[in-house]
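This part of the workshop introduces the protein records we will be handling. A learned vocabulary of local backbone shapes supplies the integers on the structure line. Getting from the letters to the tokens is the skill we practise here. As an example, a complete record with its sequence and its structure tokens follows.
=====
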Amino acid sequence: MNAKDLVHTYGDMLYRICLMSLRNHADAEDAVQEVFLKYLTRAPDFDSPSHEKAWLITVALNHCRNMLRNQRIIPTDPELLHPPENPPEQNQIFDALMQVPEPFREVLILHYIEGYPLKEIAGIIGKSTSAAKMRLSKGKRLLEEIYRKEYLS
């Protein structure tokens, strides 16, 4: 796939994933650019478009983890992370999701926002399907606890 098609096909998805991980527009844009550079310089031959997509997501998540570990990422104003036309309760859920610890948030995003089944999520995060299922379950529980504490009490 040429670079223009790659950006057109996967750019928005990768940006959403990076923005949810990094919570900063500029850092998310930088991360997406790095993912595309890695694709152009190091990508293996892919068996299918889904394998290519999984590789890109894995590289994006790993790059975001490295950015968070190696430097201080400063979140932007939470209002910038979701459009103002969203109902307030949807924004509250999103804000609560941003407070879920990263390994659990990652699985929640891949499953509920990007629509990946557990088996594919397991491959993306490099864990077993049962481990991905456990992270999803714990992530849902943590999200519910945070939401209840922040918005229902």
Notes: Residues 91 and 133 are 25 Å apart (CA to CA). The mean pLDDT is 85.
